């Protein structure tokens, strides 16, 4: 039997699958407006994905069977992670104790597929991008788990859906320094994990400075479409986490333990408010990329250090 909670969870998942490519369009449109240009259409990524799916695949002479498997692994692991991430007070499709560890593992699995597929081409530029991705991810993943652990102990729940459900307005207002610091830390992780400015410039064409784009230089056709779509889904997933922390649309009292909808207006508020928060994050990223430049590679760990510091300060404010 499909309950109201399951219907909302599936609707939230479908919204992510459909609207996630729109985030990059919003970001580029904001950057264009700030620069005084018209910019490309917000739906440009949809057109690009459709065009790539109609094209053929060009393989490097050194590529093996793992090259096409790697892009499928990236997309599959990102889709699986999205099944475990709630949309504000609307629970995820699947949830269990310690599911945020599994989400971190799925992101790591996708990163492994991307790195190995890049190395499989034999390109030195993709090798450099893979080394940088592995280095920064090795620093970012422990910080992500630290953020989740602090939130779990503060909110007395060890599921992502429970964490988002317990962030209600009254709780948020009483502990606003904690949630503000955690929101900033998660936003910095979002910029790092999605290789946005100031960590990386997704629009650059200089191979020596690229991270994510350098790793997909030899991808084409459907394989490149998988990579681009997976990147948009990952940005959507982190947007849900940031929005859940910054906007108190908790779901306590919205759904019954059996999954029935007890507060329909509250369910729509949690759903719609979180989606608005995700697109608000895209607007903020567009503004940041309009006024900042990419940092030098040796300075990128400073962003992760800031995320760690904000998480530690949040923990101190919670346990003072």
Subunit organisation of the chains: single chain
Radius of gyration: 19 Å
Count of structural domains = 1
Measured distance between first and last alpha carbons:
45 Å
Helical fraction: 55-70%
The overall average pLDDT, rounded, is: 91
Show unreliable segments.
Answer: none
The H/E string reads HHHHHHHHHHHH
The helix/strand class is: mainly alpha
Give the key terms:
globular, mainly alpha, 320 residues
Structural write-up:
With 320 residues, the chain is mainly alpha-helical. The chain has one domain. It is built from 12 helices and no strands. It has helices at residues 4-34, 44-54, 66-82, 99-120, 124-155, 160-166, 169-174, 176-193, 212-215, 221-246, 264-291, 300-318. Helix 1 packs parallel to helix 11 (264-291). It is globular and about 55 Å long. The termini are far apart. The model has no long low-confidence stretch (mean pLDDT 91).
